[in-house]
């Protein structure tokens, strides 16, 4: 999962960043579903609330032993 959440060089296209973020969210959703973790990643619009949800989900998955 860490490879998908890679940092981008300055000047990387918005499309590349959005695509990577969507792929990362899809992996988080799969992990949540597999481990029974509730999430709101599919319902929150892009922005601060969704980023906070990503952080919350990452922490919960780490607590369950997943390397995020």
Describe it for me?
The protein has 68 residues and is mostly helical. The chain has helices at residues 14-35, 48-63. The protein has one domain (14-63). The protein is built from two helices and no strands. Helix 1 (14-35) packs across helix 2 (48-63). The protein is globular.
How would you concisely characterize the structure shown here?
56% of the residues lie in helices and 0% in strands. The protein contains two helices and no strands. It is globular, with a radius of gyration of 12 Å.
Write the layout of secondary structure elements.
Elements: H1 14-35, H2 48-63
Helix pairs in contact: 1-2
Task: Offer a few descriptive terms.
68 residues, 2 helices, mainly alpha
Radius of gyration: 12 Å
Helix content: 55-70%
- What's the average pLDDT? 90
Number of domains: 1
Report the uncertain regions: none
* Through-space gap between termini: 6 Å
Main β sheet profile: none
Silhouette: globular
H/I helix tally: 2
Order of helices and strands: HH
β content, as a range?
under 5%
Counting DSSP E segments of at least 2 residues, the number of strands comes to 0
> Class by helix and strand content?
mainly alpha
